[in-house]
Task: structure prediction
Amino acid sequence: MLECKVYAANDLRVIEVEMPQPGPGEVLVRLGAAGICGSDMHYYFHGGVGSFRIREPLTPGHEASGLVAAVGQGVTRVKPGQPIAINPSRACGQCAGCREGRENLCTNMRFLGSASVFPHMQGMFREYFTMPEQQCVPVDSDVSMQEIAMSEPLSVALHSVHRAGSLLGKTVLITGSGTIGCMMVIAARLGGARRIAVTDVVDHPLDVARQVGADQTVRIDQLAEGTRLSDVIGEPDVGFEVSGAPQALITSLETVRRGGTVVQVGTLPAEGMHLPANLVMQREIDLRGSFRFGNVFEHAVDAIATRRVDVRPVISASQPLTQAEAAIKLARDKTRSMKIHLVPA
Ligand SMILES: [Zn+2]
Ligand SMILES: [Zn+2]
Result:
């Protein structure tokens, strides 16, 4: 079977490896589709994400669906042939964060396809992999494998909505219209937002944002001289900063209403940024962080499996694992691509 490994920046190899065998409590999964995420691109182009550096060959991939190929001893949740979504979070269940019900803050988190721990947690850019039963969420629906694989990015967005608090009847600004930005549109709508505005610096992702329900989209780089974003969209109650651009966080802090909330979802540059932090004080803004996701994964799977939300506009193309390098390059081209999936060769 085939497996993708990133050895270092710009060094990705698709290699032949032995088929894994499921141990007790484990499921052998045949890959359905695996989304290429920003962090996977960072591992390939830069050999790391923020402070996480590749120290041994890493198989990326944390957004996947599959079919159960075989089950190990004692597995009861799924049977061979069952379509599943894979929850990439493996929290310890013991630490203070876990016991508080905030598993995403687990100090012993093992997140798939990540170099945050050593040995690295190998991800799902491979034809077959084994997974603990509890990370396999059954899907009883005939939605596509690509749609099921969007459960992970939708979970990120649903968690951010939880961090913001109730959105019922609120107005929302989302800065950044990539996959997570579009998932934010969907999640904010599910959360009851009344009006959603989205900004970006490229047209294509804003077109997709409108397809998934954004009320207003703005090319933030094309605002007329002297025009503020609030002149165009008003002052929203809540801002979600998804782009990871320092200026977008500042724009969000300047644009939400006095007493509003800003949630930082995107990854800002590792070296930090200049922040006019008095905006937070003078305008009494609640600035909150949102990291990966807590206990929302099964909600995301259910919303997609029932098509209560339609993620199809965000799915751009699928490529075989053997073309992983080309697929990652395609995924980086924001003028054409939203979510690109890898599928078995
Ligand atoms: Zn991701
Ligand atoms: Zn823990």
Observations:
- The mean pLDDT is 97.
- The domain at 154-289 is CATH 3.40.50.720 (Rossmann fold).
